[in-house]
Amino acid sequence: MRSYRRHRLLVPVLLCALAVLAARPTDAHKEPGSGTGTGADTGLSAEVARLYEEAAVATQQYEAGREEAEEQRAEAQRAEALLDAQRRHIAALHEDLGRIARAQYRSSGGLPVAAHMILADSPEGLMRGQHAFSQADLAVNNAISKNRRAEARLAADEAKAAAQWQALEKRNTQLAGLKADIEQKLETARSQLQGQADAAAAAGACRGAVRLDQPETGFADGEWVAPVETYELSASYGSGGARWSNRHTGQDFAVPIGTPVRAVGAGRVVKVSCGGAFGMEIVLKHAGGYYTQYAHLAALAVDQGEHVSPGQWIGQSGTTGNSTGPHLHFEARVTPESGSAVDPVAWLAARGVSL
After folding, report:
1. What DSSP element (H or E) covers 21?
2. DSSP character string of 200-247
3. SS3 of 320, please?
4. Where are the beta strands (DSSP E) in the chain?
5. Nearest Cα to Cα of residue 66 among 191, 169, 178, 179
6. Chain centre distance of CA 127
7. What is the per-residue DSSP string for 99-150?
8. Residues 62, 63, 65, 66, Cα dihedral to 10°
9. CB 3.0 to 4.6 Å from 293: which of 5, 22, 278, 331, for a disulfide?
10. Using CA atoms, how far apart are residues 316 and 301, in angstroms rounded to an integer?
11. What is the mean pLDDT of the chain?
């Protein structure tokens, strides 16, 4: 009898356990934009961001080295010009010395001292003539020696400048090779990142936020910044064209795939979506009832509901959705939905950001 009651109690317990297991959500049913990306996604996005920074540093180093090489080349040219001037001066002194020697010979300057003594009118005249000749000869010899030393000095400086310039040229060649290698790796990683983004946009399911190792922004909460650090402005607000059914609703920033996209100001992520005309996009809500949109992305770095600070990386640019090339489509709105856009250039300018 005791054994029967034990079995009757065991059945409800098993049923409760099965109900709990059935109610537990699985990873396959996560909402788009929730959670973080996979390890592969994280690695690729982080690799693009890292290579992006390395390419920028390599470019700066190459440009600085090129400018330094130009300065060294100019220094070598200045030294060569000074050297030529000194050589011309020395040649003139040699010619003057030749004229003095010829004049001395014609005026019996080449006679022995004994002959000068016999022909001299007086001892004082002899001494004056000898002294004048000695002084002239000494002055010419001193000038020649001085200029020869200057010529040797300038030649050494020229050789040093030339050696420095050659070393800089060698270093610049190495920097150019390093820069090209980084850019090639970056281009490959960008292509892979865009491929993943296109697949996610086609499926209409975001891969989730990929946390990037961002450097300190240095911006205060009340500050405003441009959505990308370096860019070229392309299609502007209100422009027309065959690509849009109506006027263009934002400002396009032409940037390569994988460029870090920044929150223009403090706010909260109110929308993260994939698919459709905007492809992979993020919408932020800011104080004062304004919203900003960042579209055609290749990767997301924030989740819906997250708070962001000015300059924080929220994603990486791409060319998903209705896009003809890599760029960031940026909008300023009065609602989170499209159709309520205002001129983003003027909107940012009112907040101290000049594009």
Report:
1. helix 2-23
2. HHHHT----B----PPP----TT----SSSS-EE-SPTT---TT-SSS
3. coil
4. 232-233, 251-254, 260-262, 267-273, 280-285, 291-300, 307-308, 313-317, 328-333, 341-342
5. 169
6. 77
7. HHHHHHHHTTTTS-HHHHHHH-SSHHHHHHHHHHHHHHHHHHHHHHHHHHHH
8. 110
9. 331
10. 8
11. 79
Reference 279, options 188, 191, 199, 193; nearest CA is 199
Q: Is the pTM of this model over 0.90?
A: no
In whole angstroms, give the CA distance from residue 78 to residue 99. Answer: 32
- Give the pLDDT band of residue 23 (cuts 50, 70, 90): very low
Mean pLDDT in residue range 149-171 = 78
- Taking the C-alpha atoms of residue 60 and residue 121, their distance in angstroms, rounded to an integer, is 81
Give, in degrees to the nearest 5, the angle at Cα 224 between 55 and 193.
Answer: 35
Instruction: Give the phi and the psi of residue 34 in degrees, each rounded to 5.
Output: -95, 150
How open is the CA angle 100-103-107, to the nearest 5 degrees?
135
CB-based burial, 216-250: b 16+ in 10 Å, e otherwise = eeebeeebbbbbbeebeebbebeeeeeeeeeebbb
Q: Is the pLDDT of residue 266 over 90?
A: yes
The pLDDT value recorded for residue 164 is 76
Q: Provide the residue type at 216 as one letter.
A: E
The two three-digit tokens of residue 187, written as one number? 């281009």
Tens digit of pLDDT for each residue in 137-151?
Answer: 676 677 777 777 777
Q: Of 153-162, 217-226, 340-349, where does mean pLDDT reach its minimum?
A: 153-162
**Which residues, at least 6 apart from 164, have a Cβ–Cβ distance to it below 8 Å?**
72
**Mean per-residue pLDDT, 273-280:** 92
Mean pLDDT of 201-209: 87
CA distances from 179 to 71, 99, 110, 184, 255 (A): 22, 62, 71, 9, 18
Q: Given CA atoms 52, 53, 57, 63 in this order, what sign does their dihedral have? A: positive
Cβ-contact 210, 197 below 8 angstroms:
no
Beta carbons within 8 Å of 124's beta carbon, 6+ residues apart: none
Residue 268, helix vs strand vs coil: strand
Query: What's phi and psi for 271, nearest 5 deg?
Result: -155, 130
Integer angstrom CA distances of residue 266 from 95, 220, 243, 348, 351: 80, 9, 32, 13, 13
